[in-house]
Specification:
The complex is a heterodimer. By secondary structure, chain A is an alpha/beta fold. Chain A has eight helices and ten strands. In chain A, helix 5 runs parallel beside helix 6. Chain B has one domain. The chains are: A alpha/beta, B alpha/beta. The structure holds adenosine-5'-diphosphate and magnesium ion.
């Protein structure tokens, strides 16, 4: 049994069916790539997995470590060990990165309103400082970075680094990274990708890396590759799929899997 | 949070409008009617606004508190008598401004309130004071409950160095030469009935004097407490910062959560004068609790030559609160930072009028207020920048940020600018925000539950000001009070979120 099991997932937003039956398994220690053109439904899947209230699940289920979490609140999923690195991280004015992380870690430890918490004591100042130092080095950011207000006035690259920094601190079992690679220059991309790889190597992180480029996959090597088109996973395989995509592009796949050109173009207007 | 730049913040005069008097008359005419005449039209005293003696003011200008007090040579007895006559002639005040806003004190049952009310337990500091004020080092503390000063303590070393902290009544007797020139120097006594009653009937009161060159790190604490219904408290504070003194004042206005029927009143008059080169950080924490407490207060801070004041009131509770706050740079080189935060809940009504007044230049101002509203509360903040004729080389900026947390609450933020010197800069800005669902989801995805996420957003909203208190115990207190209000409004906030 996989840690994260997605079965026949159908998702609707404002009367539009976006996901049309998705099946996917991700376990600790595995790196998966989910690829697909803009508008194919990748972010919808990510948001739905994290429990975003705007996305309505009309059919199917999500199971995490043996527990059906289809109806769970987002914070319960987080406490259970799921993490989402946002495509568009949101600014939290007035709250420093460090303070936010301390709150998040303690929320995860406390387990007051759900069984999933471990009922631990709050993290000690020393322990927190050590972990933060480690994460800061991993992501190659200045220590002063953690005193800034979270995502407030951050550049695109800083936001993505902050996402991975949080991931390193919160030590999830399975993380979904929604286009963490987009908008990064080559150095930032390498730092972020190597960070993910190291968390996988050191902490046994399981990752679902969502991307529509191949770039990041030159730095993190996925064992599994899934291709999404028009709300369905149409092709699965190993890293050789990435190379095939690089050669043939999505158009070829569209023809092969019958997703209508018109539909794809309309979908391409989406948030990307 | 979603913060749109300058959404329906009703601007009366636009950024940096500078002009000579004739231009101003047209630009400012509407402004004066809408915003400037709070003093002039307050109450039914029939008293019209009057110009400060010796300085001609445009009719369109807001008439700054002009001073009719002991500064003009009258004795305390004469002042009390004049004020009593004004009070007898006046109705309870009503303030109106454009935008269908009315603050009416006509629901105040003055005849049921005791202006001679004594502390509930004369021997002990009120419970609400004991549990609210932080344990901390302090330079001194003075506590008035109802109409009696019941505790005064002052650091012995400071006393030896000439610092004075005592009741204002005692100060009139023991330090008359210090008090008389300043008492009511800029405060009026007859704009409305409650002001007049304060001037006529005050007892106890607070006097603080910090001698020249005296630098005091820990705060002087000034406490006004109301412990029960039926009290009319006429608070009166005078603070003098002598040349090059440096000190902090923390005022606490606290009400016990009395639940018996009936009202209480705090009508306060506060003056702080900073002489050449003096520096003061003035913070005020006002929370009258859940009892039916009305607060109608006037506060004036005068900044002298090269002096500086950082003033930050936290208005955090009261059934009906009207605050007239005026921070004036009166001599060249004065600088001020005028901050404020407010958070209304349930059926509270808050009407804050804050004036950033520049009487001479060069001078600097910086006004930054933040407010939030839950429940069915009403909050109005009017911020006025006024640069008087001749106050050249003044630079000032006013910003107001507000956050709505309930569909039934109302929060108006009204900046205005009246400029009558040409070599100045004055502008204003602001934002109107609501809870940002994207931010809430973001935090939930990190393991915070929804109420915690909401709290983080609202605390983050106030944090830029709380940080400026630069005093850990005070910061903790204000944060705790904000958190308490949020917890109480939890269901309300939830309903609002799902209704959008
Ligand atoms: N909040 C939303 N409201 C309406 N339509 C949406 C919303 N989010 C996504 N969509 C639509 O769902 C489709 C998939 O979008 P998305 O999941 O963002 O795709 P991807 O991440 O693969 O680019 C697009 O057609 C997009 O327009
Ligand atoms: Mg996307």
């Amino acid at each position: 049994m996989a840690d994260l099991e997605i079965r026949n997932l159908h998702v609707r937003i404002e009367e539009h069916e976006i996901l049309k039956g998705v099946d996917l398994d991700v376990s600790r220690g595995e790196i998966h790539a989910l690829m697909g053109p803009n508008g194919s439904g990748k972010s919808t899947l990510a948001s739905t997995l994290m429990g975003h209230p705007a996305y309505e699940i009309t059919e199917g289920s999500i199971t995490f470590r043996g527990e059906d979490i289809t109806e769970q609140e987002p914070h319960e999923r987080a406490k259970a060990g799921l993490f989402l690195a946002f495509q568009y991280p949101v600014a939290i004015p007035g709250v420093s990165v460090a303070n936010f992380l301390r709150m998040a870690i303690n929320a995860k430890r406390s387990g007051t309103d759900t069984q999933s918490g471990t009922g631990q004591e709050p993290i000690t100042v020393k322990e927190f400082r050590n972990q933060l130092q480690h994460a800061v080095e991993l992501l190659d950011v200045d220590r002063a970075f953690t005193s800034r207000h979270l995502n407030d006035g951050f550049s695109g690259g800083e936001k993505k680094r902050a996402e991975i920094l949080q991931m390193a601190m919160l030590r999830p079992d399975v993380a979904i990274l929604d286009e963490t690679d987009s908008g990064l220059d080559i150095d930032a991309l390498r730092t972020v990708a190597e960070g993910v790889q190291r968390l996988h190597d050191e902490q046994g992180l399981g990752a679902l890396i969502i991307t529509h480029y191949q770039r990041i996959l030159h730095h993190v090597r996925p064992q599994f590759v899934h291709i999404m088109l028009d709300g369905r996973i149409v092709l699965e395989g190993g890293v050789e799929l990435v190379e095939r995509l690089e050669r043939e592009g999505y158009d070829h796949l569209r023809q092969e899997f019958g997703a209508s050109e018109a539909g794809a173009v309309a979908a391409g207007d989406g948030s990307g | 949070m979603r913060l749109a730049p300058s959404r329906p913040v009703t601007a009366v005069a636009e950024d940096g409008r500078a002009g000579r008097a004739p231009a101003l008359s047209t630009a400012g005419a509407g402004a004066a009617v809408d915003n400037g005449s709070a003093g002039a039209r307050s109450g039914a005293t029939g008293a019209s606004a009057r110009a400060k003696s010796g300085a001609h003011r445009e009719a369109a200008l807001y008439h700054a508190l002009a001073g009719r007090g002991a500064g003009d040579g009258r004795s305390l007895a004469e002042l009390r008598k004049a004020a009593l006559e004004a009070a007898a002639a006046a109705e309870l005040p009503v303030w109106r401004r454009s935008g269908f806003w009315t603050t009416s004190l006509q629901g105040l049952k003055l005849e049921e309130l005791d202006a001679g009310a004594q502390p509930s337990n004369p021997g002990t500091v009120p419970e609400v004071v004991a549990r609210t004020l932080p344990e901390r080092a302090r330079a001194g503390r003075i506590v008035q409950s109802a109409n009696t000063v019941m505790a005064v303590e002052l650091d012995g070393e400071l006393e030896r160095r000439g610092v004075i902290l005592c009741s204002l009544e005692d100060a009139f007797r023991d330090h008359h030469e210090l008090v008389a020139p300043y008492f009511s120097r800029r405060l009026t006594i007859d704009r409305h009935k409650l002001e007049a009653l304060n001037a006529a009937l005050w007892s106890g009161g607070v006097f603080l004097y910090v001698p020249p060159g005296t630098v005091v790190e820990d705060p002087f604490e000034v406490v006004y407490a109301i412990e029960r219904a039926g009290v009319a408290q006429y608070g009166r504070t005078l603070v003098l910062g002598a040349p090059n003194s440096e000190f902090r004042v923390h005022e606490y206005d606290l009400g016990e959560d009395f639940d018996e029927d009936g009202q209480s009143l705090h009508a306060g008059a506060f003056e702080l004068y900073l002489q050449q080169g003096a520096r003061c950080r003035l913070a005020q924490v006002q929370d009258w609790g859940s009892g039916e407490v009305f607060d109608v207060s006037t506060r004036f801070v005068g900044v002298g030559r090269d002096a500086y004041c950082h003033w930050l009131p936290s208005l955090l509770g009261g059934r009906l609160v009207r605050q007239h706050l005026e921070l004036a740079v009166s001599e060249p080189g004065g600088e001020m930072a005028f901050r404020g935060l407010f958070f209304t809940e349930e059926h509270e009504h808050l009407d804050a009028f804050a004036v950033d007044l520049h009487e001479t230049g060069p001078s600097g101002g910086d006004v930054h207020w933040r407010g939030a509203a839950t429940g069915e509360s009403r909050a109005s903040f009017e911020g006025l920048i006024q640069i008087d004729p001749g106050a050249q080389q003044t630079h000032t900026y006013l910003q107001i940020h507000s956050m709505m947390l309930s569909p039934k609450a109302r929060l108006d933020a009204i900046p205005s600018v009246l400029v009558s010197s040409d070599d100045v800069s004055a502008s204003h800005g602001g934002t109107v925000g609501e809870l940002d669902e994207a931010a809430i989801f973001y935090m939930q995805s990190r393991g915070l539950d929804r109420p915690t996420a909401v709290r983080v957003i609202v605390e983050g909203f106030f944090e830029p000001l709380i940080t400026e208190l630069e005093d850990e115990p005070l910061q903790e207190l204000v944060r705790a009070k904000v958190a308490r209000k949020l917890a109480a409004a939890r269901e309300d906030i939830e309903a609002y979120a799902t209704s959008r």
